[in-house]
Amino acid sequence: MTFSLVGRCERTGVVGAVIASASMAVAARCAAVRAGVGAVCSQSTTDPRLRIALLDAMAAGQGADGALAAVVGQAPDVAYRQLAVADAAGGSAGYTGELALGEACHVHLAGAAAAGNLLAAREVPAAMLAAFTGAADEELGDRLVAALRAGLAAGGEVTPVRSAGLLIADTEPWPVTDLRVDWDDDPVGRLAALWQAWRPQAALYVQRALHPAEVSELCARLWVAPYHRGESNPRARAGARGL
User: Fold this and answer.
1) What are phi and psi of 160, to 5 degrees?
2) E-assigned strand segments in the chain
């Protein structure tokens, strides 16, 4: 009851994952990214531990296919699982166990992998991959959201989608984007709107962590000083700049 895509930007090396499901809070359990390592999804009767095992294997030097083979070869009850993997070097891999839920399949090529289970149409992962690869000049987040929209348009899953998530890792040791819609009637649409609101602010939140003095000075000019002058909503101006 999930469809997802993991991918890497060929221009920047940034990695990310996007996912949607009828289950609540799917991104919290099923998707993971790690800077300089890759992006993964573990789904279909989900075992969240497999996400970490895949990322650890790639961090230790395995490519996507090697990491997948190692995890599948050791994980208990792996026949129930479905995995999608993209590494930071552009490799990708996928696995669909014979006991994965309903109509289940995966596709992958250089830099991206898509997978789905309990699908309304077997073409869903291929539609996601086509949308992702067809927009190589766009920002990774835009490509991931487009892939999720394409999967939904191709049929999605057999039950109504209720949650969705988007994760992106750049060079910092935390996801620079981690957006979730944990329960909603239109989680894909809500996630797309969240991304549009977050995208112009994302870099400034990284700057907060790495260069706090510069950001504090800017906050003082945009927020504190106007507040003391009696302006009604200086926080709105600062918030619009991601501060």
Assistant:
1) -60, 135
2) 2-8, 15-21, 31-34, 38-43, 82-87, 92-96, 105-109, 112-117, 163-169, 177-181
Which class for 86: exposed (0-12), middle (13-18), buried (19 or more C-beta within 10 A)? buried
Whole-prediction pTM:
0.91
Residue 159: strand, helix, or coil: coil
Domain 2-199 has CATH 3.20.20.60: no
pLDDT digits over 24-81, tens only?
A: 999 999 999 999 999 999 999 999 999 999 999 999 999 999 999 999 999 999 999 9
Neighbours of 110 (CB within 10 A): 12
Nearest CA-CA partner of 43 in 83, 6, 97: 83
7: phi > 0 → left, psi -120 to 50 → alpha, else beta; which?
A: beta
Enumerate the β-bridge partners of residue 87: 38
